[in-house]
């Protein structure tokens, strides 16, 4: 599975926001969004979790849940390098990454990092294309 690019917009965490701050997970989003939220909550015990469905920006059919961004703030990330934090997120979503989830942007922070700067960095620009496009070259 591809891990980026995810968003066609330069705005941070833009797209349907499917979870709120402070652990209030909400019920919005489709089945995959709810699964992502539930699995990350169970595995990482986040103090803050945002799940953003970027699928509509990637030309799939309506309701397709293929491209997501997550912002996970967890004390379990303390002392871990960024790569290991991402591995924990990917491990929690292993089944989804092997199937319906095509792309995942991960922002993984400790509660201290989030407290000192509670903003998500801008998502990378969408480079366009899809697996269905014929590649030139």
As an assembly, this protein is single chain
- Span between termini: 22 Å
Shape: globular
Radius of gyration: 15 Å
Number of strands: 3
Class of the domain at 31-55 and 66-116 in CATH?
Answer: Alpha Beta
N-to-C order of helices and strands:
HEEHHEH
Which consecutive residue ranges, at least 5 long each, have pLDDT under 50? 1-27
Overview of the structural elements:
It contains 4 helices and 3 strands; from the N terminus they run H-E-E-H-H-E-H. By secondary structure, it is of the alpha+beta class. It has a domain at 31-55 and 66-116: GMP Synthetase, Chain A, domain 3, CATH 3.30.300.90. Strands 1-2-3 form a 3-stranded mixed sheet. This is BOLA1 protein. Belongs to the BolA/IbaG family. Pfam families: BolA (PF01722).
Task: Output the keywords.
single chain; 137 residues; alpha+beta; GMP Synthetase, Chain A, domain 3; BolA-like_sf; BolA; BOLA1 protein; BolA/IbaG_stress_morph_reg
Task: State the gist of this model.
26% of the residues lie in helices and 15% in strands.
SSE blueprint and pairings:
Layout: H1 31-44, E1 48-53, E2 67-73, H2 82-92, H3 94-98, E3 103-109, H4 111-116
Protein name: BOLA1 protein
Family: Belongs to the BolA/IbaG family.
Pfam family, one: BolA
